[in-house]
Amino acid sequence: MSDFQKFLFEGLPVRGMVVRLTDSWQTLLSRRETPLPPEVMNLLGEMSACALLLQGNLKFDGTLILQVAGDGPVKLAVAEARTDLSYRATANVVAAVPTGANLADLLNVHGGGRCAITLDPSDRPTGVQPYQGVVPLNDAEARRFTRLEQAVEHYMKMSEQLDTKIVLAANAEGAAGMLIQRMPLEGEGNLEGRFGAERALELEDAFPRIAMKVGTLKPEELLGLPLDELLHRLFWEEPLRRFDPAEPKFRCTCSRERVGRMLVGLGREEVDSILLERDDVEIACNFCGTPYRFDAVDCTQLFQTEGGVAPPPAELH
């Protein structure tokens, strides 16, 4: 069973969460018509775990979309996580993937890769764009990030000004991740005056101490150890408080209606040109592989609305 659990350290300005995807990850992989190269599969697993961690870290009702895009053999990789911890992920592979390729090899060959995080609220009014933050897949000295967690930690530091430690791992059997974050303290610049020198030092030292422990995690531990044992091994000396676990699930939000709106967005001329070549328009969802077919009658109905005006263009996300 896939697991997700939040926790915090009593009396310390540090919170965390851990996610382990097993059956839901297997469901996601089984829905793909063509297997992904192992390097891309692992990246998608890490992105799925990371998107769920970021979603769980926010008080936000809607969809969090994590995207990495660039100029390598992978043009785009996307993972979406929703408030109920359902998720989906896909990648667009446009060239041969080198064996053992890392993040830079996959998406940032020439240094132009980008990492974007989009927050799309459930109650977003029509016409209002969702919030999106974008950072390069390079550090301040233009050195390319080789792992996803480096890019996301950089994003969190730039966007939220909060220290964050993330570890991720994935393989064909599962995907997992852990996030630790320093919580803001009111008047943090004057901790000694508020708490006394000894207590101020303890509060200031809490995040780097705990983050260092998290950094010792090996991929096989993150993927294989029972969560109870994993948390005990790491934090047996810390005042850990755990919350009720939740279960992430793979779920795709595609629908015939959404695909129809996408076809309308392509335009009548483009759709008619496809119908001239074949009897119908067939589109498979990139996330779950579900096929959608529209024959000539279906396509005509798509473009027929009151007053003869087609619906506004829309993309299938």
What is the secondary structure topology, with strand pairs?
Blueprint (H helix, E strand, L loop, with lengths): L2 E7 L4 E8 L1 H8 L7 H19 L5 E8 L4 E9 L3 E8 L9 H5 L6 E8 L9 E6 L11 H13 L3 E7 L4 E8 L8 H5 L1 H19 L3 H6 L2 H9 L4 E3 L6 E2 L5 H11 L1 H10 L2 E5 L6 E5 H7 L15
Parallel strand pairs: 5-11
Antiparallel strand pairs: 1-2, 1-10, 2-9, 3-4, 3-6, 4-5, 6-7, 8-9, 12-13
What is the average per-residue confidence, as pLDDT, rounded to a whole number? 86
Please estimate the helix content: 25-40%
Strand order of the largest sheet: 7-6-3-4-5-11
Structural class of the secondary elements? alpha+beta
> Roughly what fraction of the amino acids lie in strands?
25-35%
Distance between the termini: 27 Å
* Highest-level CATH class of the largest domain: Alpha Beta
What is the number of E strands?
13
- When the domains are counted, the total is 2
The SSE string, one letter per element, is: EEHHEEEHEEHEEHHHHEEHHEEH
Predict the CATH topology of the largest domain: Hsp33 domain
Our Rg estimate from Cα atoms comes to: 22 Å
Task: Tell me which CATH architecture of the largest domain applies here.
Answer: 3-Layer(bab) Sandwich
Shape: elongated
Biggest sheet layout:
6 strands, mixed
Q: What ranges have pLDDT less than 50 throughout 5 or more consecutive residues?
A: 188-193, 306-317
